[in-house]
Amino acid sequence: MSTRKSNNALLTYAEAAAFVAKRAQRLARSKPAAERVTLASAAGRVLAESLRADTDQPPFARSTRDGFACRAAEASAHRPLAIAGSTRAGDPPSGPLPRGAVWEIMTGAPVPRGADAVIMLEHVEFAHIESAGAASAPTIRLSPPRIIKPGENIVLRGAQAHKGAALLPAGTLIGAAQIALAASCGCTDLAVYAKPRVAILSTGDEIVPIAAKPKPGQIRNSSAAMLAAMVSAAGGQPWILPIARDTDKSLDTALARASAADLLLITGGVSAGKFDLVEPALARQGARFHFTGVRIQPGKPLVFAELPCTTGPNQNQNGTKCWCFGLPGNPVSSAVTFQLFAAPILAALAGRRDFGPRFAFARLAADVKAKPGLTRFLPAACTFSGPVPKVKLVAWQGSGDLAAMALANCYLVVPDDSDSLHAGTTVNILLL
Ligand code: AMP
Ligand code: MG
User: Lowest-pLDDT range, 7-21, 64-78, 100-114?
Assistant: First the structure.
C-alpha cells in the first residue's frame, strides 16, 4: 500500500492546517475528566473550572504609592495641609481624613475614608505651621505647578474584579501569572483536566534504544525522547512504547496496544520505501485516514488518521477513538510535523481553549533560495533582543541533522510559491 505520493494528490499546508484546526475545534467541545492538583504542581496544566474571585479585588481601596492620601481639589490649590495620621501596609482601613489635611500612606495600604487621591512622596514639599506655644505641626503641600486628579494612585475596591466574578475560564493554560491569581483568591489547589495519554511508537529495524551502543548501520532512538519532551510541554502524558520492527507482525502487535492511548504518534515507516509498512498496518487496525501527505518540507509523508479505540480497562479517556499521526522518521520532520499538526490536536484533547501553531514576523538576515511547490519549515535562529526579531537559517544537512535542529529556536517559513526570500524582507517564523 506504500505508494509514491505525487505532489498533486497531497493537501497543501494551508489545507492540512485548516483541516486539523477544524478537528481540534470539534474535539475541544468534549471536555476531559477533571482532577485536583496542588497549586505548586499546577504549572503547565489546564484549568478545568473557571477561577472566581473570592473577594473584591483589591479588597480595599489601595494606595499604589508611598505618599499622602488627600482630597485632590484641596491638594491642587497648593496650600499647606496638616498631616492628620499615618497608615502602613497591613493596617486596617483608617480615617476619616479631616478637611484641609492629608494622611501619610504607604504602598499597599488602605486609603483612609474621605481621601480621593494619593500624592507621591516625590511630589510634595515639607513645611511647618507654627501654632502659639506648641511645637510646630508638620505640613506638606503639592509642589506647584503640579496638580492631582481624583483617583490618582488609588486602585478602588473591586476595580480589578468583583467578588464571584470569573477571572479565568476553564481551558486556560496555567502558568506563573495564573498561579499568582489563584493564590490571591486563596486557592491552595485547582481543578485541572486529566492529561491525555500520548503513545509514542518508534518504528525501524535500524533503531536501537538510547542506552545501546549502535552496531554499524544502527542509530539510536532520538525521536522518542524528543517527542516525549514535546508531548510533556504541550500538556500530554507521554507513553513510550518499545521500538517496533519493520514487519507486519511487529507493527500489528504494537498498534493494537498503542491504540489504548488518546493520541498515538508513530515515527518512521510512512514514506514510499519498501519497508514503510505503517499505513497498511494502520489500515489493518481499522484506521480511518484523514490525509496521507502534505506539501511541506520536511514532513511530506505525514499521515493523519483515527483508530478505533481499544476497549476494556485500557480504554482511552476519549472513549471512542485514538487519534493518530504517522510522522516521517527523520527527527526534524517528526519535530516539525508534531509542532504543526499533532500539537493542536493534543492541545484540544487536553481541554485547552487555544490551540494551533504560533507564528511571528521577523526580518530575514540573509537571502534564502527555495524551490516552489512545497511550504518549507527550515531550522533557523532568531534573535529577539532588538526591536525587530532577526532570523537566519541554521546550516543543516537535511532533516536528519539533529545538531542543526538543536541550534535552532524557530523554523523559517518559506511559502510554497517562493523561489527565493531576500535579506531585509519580513518573513514568517514558526515559534517553538
Ligand atoms: P523512515 O521515515 O522510516 O524512512 O526514516 C527516515 C529516516 O529517519 C531514516 O534515516 C531513519 O533511520 C531515521 N529515523 C527513523 N526513526 C528514527 C528515530 N526514532 N530516531 C532517529 N532517527 C530515526
Ligand atoms: Mg524506517
Answer: 7-21
* CATH at residue 52: 3.90.105.10
Mutate to test the pocket of ligand 1, among 2, 210, 219, 270 (most ligand atoms within 8 A of CB): 219
pTM metric for this prediction: 0.89
Are both 119 and 225 inside the same structural domain? Answer: no
- pLDDT computed for residue 354 by the predictor: 85
Total domains in the fold of the chain: 4
* Residue to mutate (ligand 1; options 200, 203, 205, 207; most atoms within 8 A of CB): 207
Residue 354 lies in a domain: no
Residue 337 above 70 pLDDT?
Answer: yes
Q: Which residue has the higher pLDDT, 125 or 5?
A: 125
Residue pLDDT, tens place only, 392-412: 999 999 889 999 999 999 999
In a domain, 2, yes or no: no
Q: With CA atoms as reference, report the closest residue to 70 among 58, 88, 83, 89.
A: 83
In sequence order, which residues have a C-beta less than 8 Å from that of residue 47 and are 6 or more positions away? 168, 169, 170, 171, 172, 173, 174, 178, 190, 191, 192, 193
Q: Is the CB of 214 under 6 A from ligand 1?
A: no
Phi/psi at 182 (5° precision):
-60, -40
Q: What range does the domain containing 282 cover?
A: 7-33+195-349
Of 231, 167, 235, the C-alpha closest to 200 is 231
What's the confidence (pLDDT) of residue 418?
A: 92
Q: Is 204 helix (H, G, I), strand (E, B) or coil?
A: coil
Tell me what percent of the residues of the chain surpass a pLDDT of 90.
Answer: 85
Question: Is 234 a domain residue?
Answer: yes
Contact 341, 347 (CB under 8 A): no
Q: How confident is the model at residue 138 (pLDDT cuts 50, 70, 90)?
A: confident
